[in-house]
Every structure is written in C-alpha cells, then in structure tokens.
Amino acid sequence: MVEFTEFFPMWDLLASEQQATLIKASVRRVIKKGTVIYRGSTDCLGLLLLISGQLRAYILSDEGREVTLYRLFERDICLFSASCMMNSIQFEIIIEAEKDVEFWLIPAEIYKGIMSQSAVLSNYTNEIMASRFSDVMWLMEQLLWKSMDKRLAAFLLEEAALEGKGLLQITHEQIARHLGSAREVITRLLRYFQGEGLVRLRRGSIEILDFPGLESLSA
Length: 219
What we know:
The protein has helices at 16-25, 108-117, 119-145, 148-163, 172-179, 183-195, 211-218; strands at 27-31, 36-39, 47-52, 55-60, 66-72, 77-78, 94-97, 101-106, 167-168, 199-202, 205-208. By secondary structure, it is α+β, with helices and mostly antiparallel strands. It has a 4-stranded antiparallel sheet.
C-alpha cells in the first residue's frame, strides 16, 4: 500500500503544521472502472493521489470524438482535476477510471494555500505540471506528424506493456476513442495488420503475434 507521504518526496521539508493540514484534509476514495471522475474546468474536484488502478485523461471534440492525452498509474498525482487553483489556466479535460481506482483527494483550496506558503511544494507542483505538458506536447507531435498506422502500432505495444501480455481485451471502438479516430479506420488498419501477420483479431480482443514487426512499423 502506498503511503500518503510517499507522494511528496520533499515531505520532510514541509512544516509540521502543513503536513498535518494536508493529512487531515485528504479523503480516501474508491471509484469503479468506467466512472468519470472529473469533467472540465468548471468541475474543480481537487488534487488526486493515485494509490492503485489506472486513470485516463482525454479531450472531447465538438463532434464528440475523444483523444487520450495521458494516463495515470499508481503513485501518480493528477493536477488537472484541481485546475481552479492554477491562475488563468483552464483545461477542458475529462478524467475517467480505466480500472477500479483508489486515491486520496486533497481539496484544491487547501493544497493551493499550502503551496503559497511552501516554495518546495510549489516547485514540486510545477515539476509535475511540466511533465504533464510534456506528455501533451508529445501527443501533439504524434497527431501532426505520425500516420495512423504508426500510432496504432505504438498504441498496441503500449497496451501490451501495460497489461503484461500480448492478448489485449479491447474493442476497435475503444482504440478509436484513445487515438481520436473513427472505428472504421481502426478496423481497416487492424485487418491490414492481421493480413501482414502482426496480430490476430478476435471478438472483443486482439492478440499480438509479431512484436518486432509492430515495433518496426511504429518507429
């Protein structure tokens, strides 16, 4: 079990009063897979400290198409769920539980108050924010410069790494939502992958047959 203090490498540099305030204000919550935890900048939930499970942060186009920005795992901190504490920055991001999740929730006003008092906590928060922006910028590069077949190959490899196996329990529609594409496009590409011996398609799942081939395609 991840301890609360493990989320803050500079914990010992905080004043004892600040430590006590963070611990007292935090609430432990358990959310089921598929639950939308945060929906846009008007929903200032607070800071999420992920104990276990997996979260997905994505944006939604006017046409209703989703694109996954990044994912969060055990020991990750989600800042965008407390976007109201960041002056002049608003993010229309939706955060959903991809698996059953357990997390601590720190109210935004509490965290912002302590951050204004503590330079070390403020610096740490800025580091996390810079890392998230880096993730988003990487995605933008993929969207602008990488073809869909390469992005799909990279996605399948990423999923296999996350699940620790080559048999992925995922639908074409779910992949399309992650990549911001249409299901028909994903289905056509997967059938092409199957024809090339890279994958085997089953109902509700995809089995990776040729990891080196996918890696070569995604490069």
